[in-house]
Amino acid sequence: MTKRELFLANLRGEYTDKTPIWIMRQAGRYLPEYREYKRNFTFEQLCRTPKAVAEVTAQPVEILDLDAAIIFSDILLILEPLGVNLKFDPGPTVAPILERPEQIEKYRDFDPANHLWFVAEALIETRKRIGPDLPLLGFCGAPFTLFCYLCGIKGAKDFHKAVKFAINYPEATARLLGSLTDVSLGYLRMQVKAGADSVQIFDTWAGELAAEEFSQWSLPYIRRITDELSKDGAYTSVYIKGAYHLLDQLSGLKANIISVDWRAPLSEAARRLAPKTIQGNLDPNLLLGPIDLVVRKAGAMLEEMAAYPGYIFNLGHGILPETPVANVRALVETVHAFERKKR
Prior knowledge:
By secondary structure, this protein is α/β, with parallel strands linked by helices. The chain is built from 15 helices and nine strands. Strand 6, helix 12 (247-250) and strand 7 (257-259) form a beta-alpha-beta unit. Helix 4 (50-64) runs parallel beside helix 6 (117-130), helix 7 packs across helix 9 (170-193) and helix 9 runs parallel beside helix 11. It starts with a helix and ends in a 6-residue tail after the last helix.
């Protein structure tokens, strides 16, 4: 099987002898080649230069023999066409912060194909670079997470800002989440049309919600996106950090893949999400340790999922910039060497 065939077989829930592996944030600062290449660009310039995006997207696949390429971009680029000021210095800053419902009326409707065309071009350029036999992944931020950043969230200490707005202005919140859903759906459709084999929806902040609030502020909007893309015949994945308490709600989505973080035991996730494909979930912090620990932990995860049809190895969150490349290489080699057999 080609890597693309292997990935898509697991995405469809088919049993294979080998396990595909890719890593969230795999194109980035832990790679010396990325750091050297990026010296020629600001982060914003890099994201908006399709040939440069193709280069850094292909780097980890070519250097580490990973089994999928995910387009290099940022979930917040979709916010700038709304009319807000977006800067990366180095983390993202949105201005003005959403604090009053009347601000929503100033947000502009836009067509992603016109304003985010460089992402589609980057996918096309990346496909030329990596060839037809490797899966190419697109992504977006989920509506609730985009809403959180509009409210000025930079870290967990700020999460109350989003909740404060949502509980004080529920109608405005629902209206904004609906609008963000519309534009996100168009954005993902653009990526699929440009050649993405599958698209992942990142809801970074939804795991901070209790189940009731999640069912109000996040789930309906993710459901609409996955429902509509399913009708299109497109493949989707959903990742929510800290979603162990939300797995039962996620099981009802039409997403093909549910990506779980390291706090959800894989066997428990498989039990609650079956027959969906499971993706994850090595703790990225463990990649900072000795190689033998990485190999042992990965081996245990592979054994745990050896009999499950539809499993894609990944981290439970994005790879850390301090991660030794040798550890990532050992991880990939461990996954590739493992022969799946129904235990």
